[in-house]
Amino acid sequence: MADKVLMKGNEAIGEAAIQAGCQCFFGYPITPQTEVAAYMSRRMPKVGRVFLQAESEVAAINMVYGAAGSGVRVMTSSSSPGISLKQEGISYIAGAELPCVIINIVRGGPGLGGIQPAQSDYFQATKGGGHGDYRLVVYAPSSVQEMVDLVQEAFDVADIYRNPVMVMGDGMLGQMMEPVEFKERSSRQIPSKDGWATTGLRGRKEHHIINSLFLKPEELEMHNEKLRKKYAEIEEKEVKYEMYNCDGDLDLVIVSYGTISRICKNVVKMLAKEGLKIGLIRPITLWPFPKKAFEEVVDRTKYGFLSVELSCGQMVEDVKLAVNGRKPVSFFGRSGGMVPSPTEIANKVKKIVGGAR
Q1: Is it true that 5-237 and 242-353 share their CATH fold?
Q2: Of 84, 114, 118, nearest to 102 (Cα)?
Q3: Which CATH number applies to 242-353?
Q4: Residue 263: CB partners within 8 Å, gap ≥ 6?
Q5: Which of 52, 89, 116, 213 could potentially form a cystine with 61 if both were Cys, beta carbons 3.0 to 4.6 Å apart?
Q6: What Rg, from alpha-carbon coordinates, does the chain have?
Q7: Is 257's pLDDT higher than 70?
Q8: How far is it between the farthest Cα atoms of the chain?
Q9: What is the pTM of this model?
Q10: Which residue intervals of 217-314 are DSSP H helices?
Q11: What CATH number belongs to 5-237?
């Protein structure tokens, strides 16, 4: 077993990417993710790989497009307003079916907002912040160790499906320090990139062309249909979630992700002492959203579901779609970088269920 080392979340992201075989990093500093780029600037040259601080977020994502087109593993990182600037490039990369990993360490918004942790980029990440019919696989880790594991898995998933993958954590996760272990990984079967990567002819007669432009509507529709089938396969095979204390009959099920889910686990324990049976669904993939988790508990929860978020209410829409009107869905959130206490969330639960037992 590998030794554990105490690392800040942002720096652990960088080391995880390096150990996953990331060959190129292109980024631009923005709080609260600047340490990702700083770590990569120190480490990448030492291991013979490419680090480049671009002149802007727009430049960085287009450098990612070029590197991904050559078949190498490539990553960029930013925080909320910087991810907004990357959206056109992300849409191009998805349209061209290129694999890459995008890190978003979310801060409060809208606009410049503030540098405190938030989850208000959920819509941007899961509903397609750029133009067109495309999807990102979106992971939402709740600890630094899970961040490490999911960053490494993200590179595999990106390669398997030739699709950009986002790992989204809030500013709290990027800045906290926790012990992490860089484990021996059994890598998934990765398809060869020889059939599409732009690495020169190398004796072939046909050119490899990477493109997202289809001027004939019939061709563009065929391309979109191909993407749709790929996304359906991802929805079938790549869903991840955790169910906590969800056995038997339940008074209510909390739904939360990322660092706020850790607070919600404490709420579940607190309320158990007061006689309430509360479950927790923690989506690990925000897209594809874990609808099947709700099927397991929807008939066993008396008062329905409570979506708890560091936002004004975004994931709650997907919770309502998953529940599909069968039980009530409530919302509790703080925004702007404010983090609720376990007592605040517990009081909201008790208000819904009519007090402690």
Answers
A1: yes
A2: 84
A3: 3.40.50.920
A4: 256, 339, 340, 341, 342, 345
A5: 89
A6: 21
A7: yes
A8: 75
A9: 0.96
A10: 217-237, 258-272, 291-297
A11: 3.40.50.970
